[in-house]
Here is the input.
Amino acid sequence: MLTWVPTARAQDSTIRSIQNIFDPLSAPAETIYQTSLLVLAVCAGIFLIVAGLLTYAIIRYRRRGPEDDHEEPPQVYGSAAIELAWTVPPILIVVMLVLVTARTIGEIQHPKLPESAENIRVIGHRFWWELRYPKHGVVTANEIHVPLSDRKKRIPTQMVLESADVIHGFWVPQLNGKTMLVPNYRNTMWIEPFATGIYLGNCTVLCGEQHANMLIRVIVDPPAVYKKWLESQRQPPPPPSDPQAVEGQKQFIANACGTCHTIQNTAANGVFGPDLTHFSSRATLGSGMAPNDDENLRNWLEDPQVLKPGCRMPDMHLTKDQVDVILAYLGTLK
Ligand code: CUA
Here is the structure.
């Protein structure tokens, strides 16, 4: 039975494992967090007042004995003071919340981003993420590298969100609110992380069998490390020299893997599946499902449908020898 082997993932201390809106680490997420605190505080205040008055009335006017049954409380008809008290303050509260929310939405949807901002195109596919860095000519998948920002020297990242098939949702709670990826439409969002590390997120719109395994990893690196990563992604990998890997490349092409996957400088130029040009530089497989190691990759190549049932990669019925050499070849794609 093929299964995922979860090794490094649990031990990776750089993963900010909480997907928590109350621990924002990015400019727009902070703005949302502050607004949510204000709304929570107002609601908590209203709850305490209402619950307090109710409790008071229940205790103060409870039935104490049979004599209470004959006594009718004073009947009050119409009171301008009471009517004003429960009309005017709620209106003021609602108006205040509307203004604050409108300002927050404005800040998040129409930000003034500096020239230094990065640009990424995120394209949702069933069930993985295509990532394009148009300024740098880099194409990758599932693991979104972005630079760390600094409050003085800002480097936010602007994202254009699109879909190749159905509606998906992009949400990394510590970085920003959710945004949908809608076919034939371009949504935008931005993030501006203030701490390095790996941020986890999920697709938030039910998009098919493997919706739950359409995981997002955002890797925030200091600008120098990010630049190096871009540099390495821009270079096509050198042609394989090891005989096993050379045979693996042949088998990769012969088995039509290249109709769905692209590997730069080879005949593989498909766009239905993730770009594999630097496949080995990615830490995970199957859109964040498991660590990208030999054992998991071997299981994946033997039959992706066992590990990710319903995913778009069919069982290619590769022989053991074919899996061995393709594994060796993919290992060279650093
Ligand atoms: Cu994509 Cu759910």
